[in-house]
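#struct-help
A.M.: can someone run this one for me? Single chain, 162 residues.
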Amino acid sequence: MDLISLIIIIISALAALITIYNQIKPNNYNVKYIKLPKERIKSILGSWEGDIIDITDNDTIKSYSLNLNLNRIRGNNILGSATIINMNDNNNYSFDVHGGFYQYHFFKFEYINTNRAVVHFGISLGELSSNSKELSGKYIGFGTTRERIILGDIKITKNITN
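D.P.: on it. Structure tokens below:
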């Protein structure tokens, strides 16, 4: 077998592998965050406080305090941290947060426990008020306390410092 035949066989094999990979790889459904005016992006940066209302399987409602600190921008992504305070057992849960805007006022963020050994993560979709002082929406995720999928409502307001 000469060198040219060997190169053709290698290229054909690589092409076949790339074709197979492209057919079996998961589709990328990530929607890119949109670029907004600097004032709107800056309006979401900072400290937010409010409540999470957790709806349990038997329709019991549990309330938690949420402190959200959005402090960095990377491209169109907004990054930060969050703390959930469980008033029932006085436990705090810390999260890394990242997200962005899909439209002018629709905001999405994902959260994951800072302790990666703990399985606690989720996603929240919210609507930023026209005055940029309130964010309300829904969340769904996996909760470490109940060890199951959790869902509920979020309503937070921006801390305004003078």
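A.M.: thanks! The helical segments are 3-24, 38-44.
D.P.: also worth noting: Residues 3-24 form the longest helix (22 residues).
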